[in-house]
Amino acid sequence: QVTLVESGGGLVQPGGSLRLSCAASSTIFSNIFVVYNMGWYRQAPGKQRELVASITRDDKLRYADSVKGRFTISRDSAKSTLYLQMNSLKPEDTAVYYCNANSQYEYWGQGTQVTVSS
Closest by alpha carbon to 24, among 108, 104, 114, 112? Predict the structure, then answer.
């Protein structure tokens, strides 16, 4: 069983920055990052959930074209925390952002709202 808890969302002006955090815990593994591939997804109103960024167990990174050069995914194994640094935010980045862990099983966090507006 894996529990994911996101934080760090909020209201920010266009061009601003936010850092999302996802605290990950497992009843079985002390370091879930060696077992699970991790990712950030987002879902805007009326749209499908989409991948924003991911990092595999062996550190392969992947970004959606729309966020390349602006967002950075990272993780801290000692803190069991996944991060998403978001810079140069645009109104179209407005969405609920979800943390995801996947391997044999898949887990989702509850989501954190990010609103980019002046």
Answer: 108
Confidence of residue 111 (pLDDT cuts 50, 70, 90): very high
Rounded average pLDDT over 34-53: 96
Measure the CA–CA gap between 75 and 57, rounded to whole angstroms: 11
In our burial notation (b when 16+ CB lie closer than 10 A, e otherwise), range 51-84 reads: ebbbbeeeeeeebeeebeeebebebeeeebbbbb
Query: What stretch of H or E contains 113?
Result: strand 112-116
Q: What are phi and psi of 113, to 5 degrees?
A: -80, 130
Length, in residues, of the chain: 118
Task: Give the integer Cα–Cα distance in Å for 62 and 65.
Answer: 9
